[in-house]
Amino acid sequence: MRRDTFLKSMAALAATGALPMSAWAAASNIKMMIPANPGGGWDTTGRALGKALTDGKLAETVTYDNKGGAAGALGLAQFVTGSKNDPNALMVMGAVMLGGIITGKPPVKLEQATPIARITSEYNVFVLPANSPLKSMKDVVEQLKKDPGSVKWGGGSRGSTEHIAAAMIAQNVGADPAKINYVAFRGGGEATAAILGGNVTVGGSGYSEFAEYINSGKMKAIAVTSATRLPGINVPTLKEQGIDVEIGNWRGVYGAPGIAAEQRKALTDMVLAALKTPSWSEAMKKNDWTPAVLAGEPFAKFVDDEFSRLRATMTKSGMV
After folding, report:
1. Left, alpha or beta for 174 (phi > 0: left; psi -120 to 50: alpha)?
2. How large is the average pLDDT for residues 29-33?
3. 96 and 138 belong to one structural domain
4. Residue 185's pLDDT band (boundaries 50, 70, 90)?
5. Are residues 69 and 207 in the same domain?
6. How many structural domains compose the chain?
7. pLDDT, tens digit, for every residue of 202-247?
8. One domain for residues 224 and 81
């Protein structure tokens, strides 16, 4: 029997309940598109999910394809054009990709792919280089009010959550968000080097990417973008400091364009099962991720709503 015919038959049986979903999934070799360079948040998320799939015997193998650039738009384009109708293809994505699509207007649309699930959220931390003359977010805000361009913000790609957060901070404290000086880096490594070298005034990223430098004293954490303090992390929120800004860097996965409803359900069930494995629990703890599970149509609606919210914020801030 041809492999594609076999997979369709197995998916059909699984959908009717005649075969456990895990039995269909165990026959699969998942292809994971990671639309970012190795070492960053999406890469860590994709590989942790892949490990959970194989450790949980939900997939036989998982292969990874890193394609960085344009806030995930290059990887999205490759995924949309190269994975049509493939029931074993997954792509990591998240809030950063929405911002990149809004600013970059890529030739393909996220809507062409198939929403599967949101899996985590990670809040940003803003840091200062250890030798910075500024000592707190209050100092940053005072300088921002005097001269918005004199504060050089460093972080991920244009339209990333830290870029949007910087614009929201400026807007909230009465500075012109269109005048913020934001330097976009292609990966976490580049941003880290710029902060450690004092080449930016303030750095922003997920807490896990900066944790070792914060703990060693090479960076000073001055604020997190969550509603309440992160568990076990003694860094004040922006709201605590009188800045009414909250934004999470959520991450999720999409399936290929054109897959059937039963194939989408099989992928969704497989991903949700992976999130219940010990392997995934270890990754959540290690990376300080916050669970944010949302699947199927509610996830698709959430993405639509996020597009609208981010577009409005980015337009007001002069990013679009």
Report:
1. left
2. 97
3. no
4. confident
5. no
6. 2
7. 999 988 889 999 999 999 999 999 999 988 899 999 999 999 999 9
8. no
Is residue 307 packed enough to be buried (19+ CB in 10 Å), middle (13-18) or exposed (0-12)? middle
Specify whether the CB–CB gap between 299 and 71 falls below 8 A: no
> What CATH number corresponds to the domain at position 116?
3.40.190.150
| Residue count (the chain) | 320
Query: How far is 233 from 288, CA to CA, in rounded Å?
Result: 10
Q: Verify that 232 and 126 share a domain, yes or no.
A: yes
Residue 231 confidence (pLDDT): 86
pLDDT tens per residue across span 57-96: 999 999 999 999 888 999 999 999 999 999 999 999 999 8
Q: What is the pTM of this model?
A: 0.77
DSSP assignment string, the chain? --HHHHHHHHHHHHHHTSS-HHHHHHT-EEEEEE-S-TTSHHHHHHHHHHHHHHHTTS-SEEEEEE---GGGHHHHHHHHHH-TT-TTEEEEEEHHHHHHHHHH--SS-GGGSEEEEEEEEEEEEEEEETT-S--SHHHHHHHHHH-GGGSEEEESSTT-HHHHHHHHHHHHHTS-GGG-EEEE-SSHHHHHHHHHTT-SSEEEEEHHHHHHHHHTTSEEEEEE-SSSPPTT----BTGGGT-----EEEEEEEE-TT--HHHHHHHHHHHHHHTTSHHHHHHHHHHTPEEEEEEHHHHHHHHHHHHHHHHHHHHHTT--
Token pair 């996965």: residue = 253
